[in-house]
Design goal:
Blueprint (H helix, E strand, L loop, with lengths): L6 E4 L3 H12 L4 E4 L14 E4 L1 H9 L9 E4 L1 E5 L5 E5 L9 E5 H13 L4 E4 L7 E4 L6 H5 L4 E17 L6 E6 L5 E7 L6 E9 L3 H6 L2 H11 L7 E3 L4 E10 L3 E3 L7 E4 L5 E2 L7 H17 L10 H30 L3 H15 L3 H11 L9
Parallel strand pairs: 1-2, 1-9, 2-8, 5-11, 9-17
Antiparallel strand pairs: 3-7, 4-7, 5-6, 10-13, 10-14, 10-15, 11-12, 12-13, 15-18, 16-17
Helix pairs in contact: 1-3, 1-7, 7-8
Amino acid sequence: MAQSFDVCIRGAGIVGRTLALLLARERLSVALVDSAGSHAPSHSDVRAYAMNVATREILESVRSWPDPEHATAVLQMQVHGDQGGSVTFDANSQQAEAMAWIVDVPALERRLADATRFQPLVDVVREPVQAPLTVVCEGRASKSRAEFGVEFNVTPYGQTAIATRLSCERGHSQIARQWFTADGSILAFLPLEGEQGNSVAVVWSIPQEQVQQWLACDDAAFVQKLQEISESSLGALTLIAPRASWPLQQAQAKRWCGTMPGTTNQWWTLAGDAAHTVHPLAGQGLNIGIGDVSALARILGERQSWRSVGDVKLLRQYERERKSALLPLGATMDALQQLFARKESPLQALRNWGMRGFEMSGPIKEWVARQAMGLQPPSGKR
């Protein structure tokens, strides 16, 4: 007799595995679909994610938070405009341990893989299985979303992100640095390898017409450009990883849930990048995805005993809650990207003036910082 499952999760990346562990904690049996080991941890993966307090708490709750060497605490964030404007966020001013943690993707994937391997309520399978609920966590290019006929409204930014890693002459001092340039590009240096580290993960968002030039050029020319944009803030730079790239977009699925094709009592829903994507300039993409699966697991865990995990009322509740949470953040990221993509001199001067004003804005700056950190307002400041 074939094994039965409560939930089938399509996609065994970070979001899918986190959901599997959260659902298992709710005593639900899970089939986690990992097609031909497609999400096996890769040592050549150059990605790193900025994770906030809320995301850290969720990953710690399922025993999957990496060790300090692979989860570097960010004590300060420095944002530089193209005409002298700047903004600094500091963990001390928020009475917080860190602004965020820069987490090495391969290390996190290994922790999640180990946790799911030893969770008896999670079975890793190669093909989707039938279950009252199927959750699609396949990323922005989800095949299941297309199979279910879901419209995915995409707004291309005309930019591509180039990611790599650098070794720096000087230590990063646990500071995340970001530069907005006059040609519309955005360069981020994210600290790696713990508090004494001197390497950074690089995310360089550049206009589409420049992509081929910077992917095809030799290492010396590439590093020299990064050295120029970063104003040699970390001394001499050395490229220590290959360059990866992906196009940038804002997108959201029109529907987040529905009935499985050919059935009347089995349902599907979307989570993570399969449901939405935002610009990486604030590093919130994975935090939003982890927020999705945390909300879904909580809603399913709190359901009445007689209600199926595939009950449409639960899935509609999840969809409303997460769309509401996504709306202000997605709109803010889109507005910032559009503003800094403009090359007209009056707009460049205006946005740098705005950065200087924001730096001195007090409560507004504090509110933005705590939202990005996943923190609630401090007591007495509701």
